[in-house]
Amino acid sequence: MSRKALIAGNWKMFKTGSQAVATAKKLAQLVENMDDRDIMIAPTLLSLPLVSQNLEGTPVKTGAQNLFHEKEGAFTGEVSAEMIKAAGADYVIIGHSERRQYFHETDNGISKKIKAAFDARLTPILCIGETHEEKKEEKTFYVLDKQIRNGLKGFRSADELSGLVIAYEPVWAIGTGNVATPEDVETTHQYVRSLIMEIFGKDLANATRILYGGSVKPDNVSVLMSMQNIDGALVGGASLDADTFIKIIKFD
Description:
By secondary structure, the chain is an alpha/beta fold. It has one domain: Aldolase class I (TIM Barrel), CATH 3.20.20.70. It has 11 helices and 8 strands. The chain has an 8-stranded parallel β-sheet with strand order 7-6-5-4-3-2-1-8. Helix 5 packs across helix 7 and helix 7 runs parallel beside helix 8. The protein is globular, with a radius of gyration of 17 Å. It starts with 5 loop residues before the first strand and ends with a helix. The mean pLDDT is 96.
């Protein structure tokens, strides 16, 4: 089946509110009337409401970089899925390797966040990927199997996961300039899709968009996107500049 491409930008901890709005406005002008692919940017939580307001009516959607699984309560410093939705977001990135590494997020906690996202009508982007050491030890598929099975544990049917997006981001390729070969990414995405099929069935496997992230740039996006099982990209540093990001969005 045909899956609509999704090009997403993760702005991480960059840009003040005014800087984020300026970049978002410029990007919206560059993609005006573009409807053959989905576009998303994830600014910081502080900038999210401002950016969302300025992107209303444009092809560019917004997302958050994280959430907390509870709806409300005494959780100082956290933000719920409902709050993110109210801020204007449509997507939320969950389980990014930086969250796993620096904030010790677990697959169990990630599973709770995915459920919270769906409950708030947000589209979760589940990030998975192996470290350099795990790759050297040929544990890539083992790691991805564990992250997917545990991260989606508790979901009983494909219907509960309708709209799920998965982003394969090998940790060794994020922000390093190193990028997996398109053939290797395709093989890995094929494995991820087969795993979704095994657990939840063919329909969800065929519908789930699997993005690649890890040093995606204008000069390598087209060959990546030519692969059958690469449905888009989760872009870090190259998404911070509208003139650069548009070259990725407009892959041919």
